[in-house]
């Protein structure tokens, strides 16, 4: 093997490991607490209709970007899985690192787009994405058989649909 190939292999492995660490750290962070459905805001702290609409629009735009980013990252991972002969190769580790770190970054990004003024139903639906997506990533990492992973992906898809429905209910499509 040439010196350049060894250097690139070492670099790919290092990037993959760093991505795994960053991604897993973000995934294992406790999920933000969903707003209490029994909590009733007082009129002094209730958002105005404009603030409510703006917060819903911001959260739903963040969700759209989140969904796209996770889809791209998972697509690259699944593509690599289909071609992988060696899960420990620098290419496989690099792709795994990209996937896990991208998912963690997208979850953090989405959290930053949901403000306290957002509709409670929308905020709650978005908060349910973290455990649902974490289950998908866990199934991918453990290379679960299709009989297991397909069920988990279906549950994640239902969670995505719930957020989309909450966006529509908030008047954002």
TrEMBL record:
Chain segments carrying region Disordered: 32-51
Low complexity: bias regions: 36-49
Protein name, entry field: Alanine and proline rich membrane protein
Organism: Mycolicibacterium arenosum
Lineage start: Bacteria, Bacillati, Actinomycetota, Actinomycetes, Mycobacteriales
